[in-house]
């Protein structure tokens, strides 16, 4: 089985993914409920990073076999988007399409954009804003992060979505054709859209970015307003949340929008994991090993789940040992 097929199979099992994310963020989180585990995959910029790390781990056939390895990986993960020296800090934490991650914008190079997608298995993308006044990239203007997975002639979008209006855990949705995505790109960059074009953007966003939302309460920055007391106990219907997010794209008074590929995203994440100064402990860990596919007895997620069960059994034996 190819690496990308293994990844696709893992994405089809949410319990595995939620367990993986729980371990990935374990050094900064306590015991979590199932609902909290699901919400760990809501932030689109973080799910893109979580997916990329999973891809790298699987490709390298890495086994994480003790708590120290998991703790090192967790710390590196948080450093990538909280440490200002990280190569991806500006992109992930500041929502900026900056110069450091190499970007390929659809509006400038549609042919190169499409060629890149047809020749790579994982394509890391974002929807970013363009200032309506000066036609320049809008600072802090990334509104959504998502990834396209190519498995030979099949294409999938994996995405999540988090805002004050809606929360959507990660999903993987197959594209009918890659052309349907290019149609979305072409329409999105238009500054004066027809009603039919607006309908297509709404359809595309609902199907690939906003599907399967989980409940979210109304949120107000000013907690003293009367409406807050009235609406806080209530939940925002997913349909209302979807409409608000789509209208932000369609009726934005400050920004037009386009799509960019971050062509070196995985390379930068790989560097942060294994070669940056704060990754040295993880790279040098004596219990971190790469093994051939032929010798592997379990995938990375199976290894993590197995470790969890083993740890639980040991804890129980220690707790109930006679005489203690």
How would you explain this protein's 3D organization?
With 324 residues, the protein is an alpha+beta fold. The chain has two domains: 1-99 and 265-324, no CATH class; 103-263, no CATH class. Helix content is 46%, strand content 18%. The protein contains 14 helices and eight strands. The chain has helices at 3-11, 14-24, 34-39, 44-59, 67-82, 89-92, 110-118, 178-188, 195-208, 226-231, 238-250, 265-274, 280-283, 300-319; strands spanning 62-63, 103-105, 122-131, 137-151, 154-162, 167-174, 255-262, 289-290. The protein has a six-stranded antiparallel beta sheet with strand order 2-7-3-4-5-6, sandwiched between helices. The protein starts with a helix and ends in a 5-residue tail after the last helix. The model is unreliable at 286-301 and 305-324 (pLDDT under 50).
């Amino acid at each position: 089985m190819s690496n990308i097929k293994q990844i696709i199979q893992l994405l089809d099992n949410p319990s595995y993914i939620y367990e993986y994310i729980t371990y990935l963020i374990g050094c900064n989180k306590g015991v979590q409920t199932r609902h909290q585990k699901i919400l760990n995959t809501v932030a689109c910029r973080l799910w893109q990073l979580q997916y990329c790390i999973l891809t790298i781990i699987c490709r390298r056939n890495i086994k994480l076999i003790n708590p120290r390895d998991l703790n090192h990986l967790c710390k590196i993960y948080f450093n990538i988007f909280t440490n200002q020296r990280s190569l991806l800090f500006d992109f992930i934490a500041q929502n900026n399409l900056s110069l450091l991650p190499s970007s390929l914008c659809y509006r400038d190079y549609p042919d190169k954009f499409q060629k890149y997608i047809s020749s790579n298995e994982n394509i890391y993308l974002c929807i970013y804003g363009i200032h309506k006044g000066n036609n320049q990239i809008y600072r802090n203007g990334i509104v959504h992060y998502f990834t396209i997975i190519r498995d030979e002639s099949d294409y999938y979008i994996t995405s999540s979505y988090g805002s004050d209006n809606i929360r959507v855990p990660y999903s993987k949705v197959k594209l009918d054709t890659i052309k349907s995505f290019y149609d979305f790109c072409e329409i999105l960059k238009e500054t004066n859209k027809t009603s039919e074009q607006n309908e297509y953007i709404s359809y595309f966003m609902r199907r690939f970015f906003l599907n399967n939302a989980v409940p979210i309460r109304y949120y107000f920055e000013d907690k003293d307003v009367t409406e807050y007391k009235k609406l806080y106990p209530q939940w925002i219907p997913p349909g209302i949340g979807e409409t608000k997010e789509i209208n932000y794209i369609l009726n934005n008074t400050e920004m037009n929008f386009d799509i960019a590929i971050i062509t070196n995203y995985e390379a930068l994440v790989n560097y942060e994991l294994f070669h940056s100064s704060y990754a040295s402990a993880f790279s040098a860990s004596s219990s971190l090993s790469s093994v051939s596919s032929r010798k592997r007895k379990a995938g990375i997620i199976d290894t993590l789940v197995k470790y969890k069960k083993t740890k639980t059994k040991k804890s129980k034996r220690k707790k109930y040992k006679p005489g203690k």
